[in-house]
Design goal:
The complex is a heterodimer of chains A (139) and B (536). Chain A is built from five helices and five strands, in the order E-H-E-H-E-H-E-H-E-H. Chain A has a five-stranded parallel β-sheet with strand order 2-1-3-4-5, with helices on both faces. The N and C termini of chain A lie far apart (40 Å). With 139 residues, chain A is of the alpha/beta class. By secondary structure, chain B is of the alpha/beta class. Chain B has a six-stranded antiparallel β-sheet, with helices on both faces. Classes of the chains: A alpha/beta (139), B alpha/beta (536).
Chain lengths: 139, 536
């Protein structure tokens, strides 16, 4: 272990993945795994075992909320804090995300310091939402 | 008789006398038909168009006097001149009684005596005939006139429209039954009354009907819409046709026919109101559909634009941290890019707000409480900008139907505009009160408010720099701003008005440059009429 927190970044925007990965790694606090294919999320979670997941909401086929639901069903996944970083700014989307166990919701364009603060809050236990251990049937 | 020949019927049994007489009469241009007996004469009289009869008195069979008596049974005026050689007082008296034209004695002194008697008798007969003809004509005319007057009287009296006759100086001369029915006044009380007390033109309520002018024009004045002021004081509406009545070429009265159009007008007004409501509903529906479409589009655009903005922001963050680029000018450039990325993001967010105003979560709220909450949210800025806030919120205001979040957004927007216009220091006055909708307010409210209903007014006044006359016309236009590109998106008041519109309310702005601005938000008080907002 290098003492760095493991951050998993899931977004279908390749450029966003690359630049955010670069930024987070530059802080030297995090080890970042970037994933653009949402359907591979759960298998990658099992292999990478992140401390925090940064997740986009709107992705083709499998959306952010779908991944949250999958994580909630998974014994390993359900304990990993999820922070949403999405372009969706509607209250209904935020509510849906929180109901499915995300700990924070950031709206793009979010500055790096905001993302870092949100990640650090998770480790300090100051997050807004909390992980829901049981499965949430939103729909 | 003039140039026409006289037709003469001669009754004479003496052959010699009659031959001599005929000879002379024909010479004097007189047509003669001779008969020997009175019986024959009675037969011929109707066949020959005799102008005069010359008869002997003593005749075989019926004598002359009896002939005349018999003749008068059928022909009253045909002149009969008697010529007799056996004159006596009795026959003369009898002849005069029977209206004989003359009585001459045989032998005649000269033929001229007879001729002048014939001429007199015929001239007189012609005059009598002419006179009778004239009398008959007159009688026919009188009868026709009487009939026409009866018809007119019936028409006037039984007409389904109001009929009245008004004198030159504007007094009622005559009215029909319908006028009594509609006005509630008796005929007796209407006659002699000034017409303007009962009939008032619609277009000019204060004006009078200028009867003198109508007389001077001497022709029909067209149709005028009038009010008939009834005895009970309830107006009836009428359509009046008015025309001078000419007698001997001069107008001395006006004939007015008024059709009661109260029902039609009321129906028209109802129809107009219904049409206006339908139009309003249609407009709202179209607006709602537009907003919904715009909302969907805005949401899509927002997502598509926010993603690249996110990448730009992360890119700047990356470059900022590069030690190589810690040059002052580059730092300045990065700051500019970041600010403008935020600005683009702000525009998208407001654009989303704008489109989201199409759906409201309406609840019954105390507007003063919403205002106080909104003021709390700007208190930091108020303190920072050294603004004094003065509240004058009316107690016991009735509740209004609002989406609390959206209305807070409206008030915060108005407060922030006010604060920004004051540039360090100033006074922000917030006042609430209740007003009754009058005609002017109703017309400005795009049909949302009805006359007489109550409206809650929120008045926000500042002592800022005000808005110029040119700018005030554009303040509600999307993307119009006076704050400069870094400070305002130009969508704030546009969103505000949209929200107020969705609440079927009204927003008005008054401003004096360098003195300040007053913003008034008017919202309907909750009633059965507007509770339909809840379901929106």
């Amino acid at each position: 272990m290098n003492g760095k927190k493991r951050i998993m970044l899931i977004d279908d925007e390749e450029d966003f993945l690359r630049i955010t990965k670069l930024n987070l790694e530059k802080t030297k606090k995090y080890e970042v795994f970037a994933l653009s294919k949402a359907k591979e999320a759960l298998s990658c979670v099992r292999s990478f075992r992140p401390d925090v997941i940064l997740l986009d909401m709107l992705m083709p086929k499998t959306g952010g909320v779908d991944i949250c639901k999958e994580l909630n069903r998974d014994p390993l996944g359900r304990n990993i804090p999820v922070i949403i970083v999405s372009a969706l700014d509607r209250d209904a989307d935020k509510l849906r995300a929180y109901e499915n166990g995300v700990v924070d919701y950031l709206v793009k364009p979010a500055e790096l310091n905001k993302i870092v603060t949100a990640i650090d809050k998770v480790f300090c236990g100051q997050t807004i939402g909390k992980r829901i251990k049981t499965e949430v049937n939103y729909e | 008789m003039g140039k026409n020949k006289i037709n003469l019927l001669l009754i004479e049994d003496d052959q010699d006398f009659s031959s001599a007489l005929i000879f002379r009469l024909v010479k004097r241009n007189i047509n003669v038909v001779r008969v020997a007996t009175a019986e024959e004469a009675l037969e011929r009289v109707s066949k020959t168009k005799a102008d005069v009869v010359v008869s002997d008195i003593k005749l075989p069979g019926m004598d002359g006097v009896r002939f005349l008596s018999k003749l008068r049974e059928t022909t009253k005026d045909l002149p009969v001149i008697f010529i007799t050689g056996y004159a006596n007082i009795e026959t003369a008296k009898e002849a005069v009684k029977m209206n004989a034209a003359d009585y001459l004695l045989k032998p005649l002194e000269s033929i001229d005596e007879l001729i002048s008697s014939i001429n007199r008798a015929v001239a007189n007969y012609n005059l009598v005939c002419k006179n009778r003809e004239l009398m008959q004509n007159l009688q026919t005319k009188v009868e026709e006139l009487e009939q026409s007057e009866r018809k007119y009287r019936d028409l006037f009296e039984l007409a389904s429209d109001i009929s009245c006759i008004i004198s030159e100086n504007g007094y009622i001369v005559s009215v029909n039954k319908k006028m009594e029915e509609v006005s509630g006044y008796s005929r007796k009380s209407l006659i002699g009354k000034p017409a303007e007390k009962v009939i008032v033109p619609m277009r000019n309520r204060a004006g009078k009907l200028d009867f003198q002018k109508i007389f001077s024009q001497g022709s029909s004045a067209g149709t005028i819409e009038v009010r008939i002021i009834t005895r009970e004081g309830r107006d009836r509406l009428g359509e009046m046709g008015i025309s001078p009545m000419k007698t001997g070429g001069r107008s001395n009265n006006l004939q007015c026919v008024i059709r009661d159009i109260t029902k039609r007008k009321t129906a028209e007004q109802k129809l107009q109101k219904a049409y206006a409501r339908l139009k309003q509903a249609q407009t709202q529906l179209i607006q709602a559909e537009k907003m919904e479409a715009m909302g969907r589009m805005a949401s899509g655009i927002a997502h598509e634009v926010k993603n690249p903005l996110g990448i730009i922001m992360q890119g700047i963050n990356y470059l900022e941290s590069e030690s190589l680029l810690r040059r002052k000018d580059l730092i300045e450039v990065f700051k500019m890019i970041k600010n403008n990325t935020r600005r683009a993001d702000d525009i998208i967010r407001v654009f989303l707000d704008f489109s989201r105003a199409s759906s409201l979560e309406i609840k019954l709220k105390d507007i003063n409480a919403v205002l106080k909450e909104s003021l709390k949210l700007v208190r930091h800025t108020v303190r920072l900008e050294d603004i004094k806030v003065r509240n004058n919120l009316a107690k016991g205001l009735p509740k209004v139907l609002v989406d609390e979040g959206k209305i807070e957004q409206v008030f915060i927007n108005i407060f922030l505009n006010a604060i920004q216009s004051m540039h360090k220091g100033g006074r922000l006055s917030v006042r609430t009160y209740l007003v009754k909708v009058n005609r002017s307010l109703k017309s400005r409210s795009r049909g949302y408010f009805s006359s007489g209903e109550q409206v809650v007014v929120v008045e926000v006044k500042d002592t800022g720099m005000g808005i110029s006359k040119d700018d005030i016309k554009k303040v509600f236009d999307p993307f119009f701003t006076t704050k400069g590109p870094q400070k305002g998106t130009g969508l704030g008041l546009s969103v505000t008005r949209n929200i107020i519109d969705m609440h079927r309310g009204m927003i008005e702005i008054e401003s004096v440059e360098n003195k300040g601005t007053k913003v008034m938000v008017m919202l309907e008080v909750f009633s059965k009429k507007n509770n339909s907002l809840i379901t929106q």
